[in-house]
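Have a close read of this protein, sequence plus structure tokens, and explain what the tokens say about the fold. Thanks in advance:
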Amino acid sequence: MHLIPSEQEKLLLSVAGMLASYRKERGIKLNYPEAVAYISCWVIEEARAGNYTVDQMMSDADVPLEQRKGDTPGRGESVLTTDDVMEGVPEMLDILQVEATFPDGRKLVTLYDPIRAPKAAPLPAPIR
């Protein structure tokens, strides 16, 4: 099998993303390279499946539930949270750019602060 350099890079990224996913599922906090691979693979796979437009991926606004396809998290919900990664990783990753293939062609997705604190649970209503 002969792969051009860009295909080799994509294959290496996919393997690193799968390893990161496996570690995350086991409860192991991800380091910087694993976090980059995990988020990058998420972008590439969701773009390829047509689940999001490039604008939806780059937006901080949540994708309305009725517009989602399957159980995919919305962009605003963050793919990884600070609970998923080692200390210091979110500060190291302030911008992540991924070139992905969407149904209408290849596009560059830029994510700002892709690792955020988990959303706080809503406070219970006060008892009266």
About this structure: The domain at 5-114 is CATH 3.30.280.10 (Urease; subunit A). The two ends are 70 Å apart (CA to CA). The chain has one domain: 5-114.
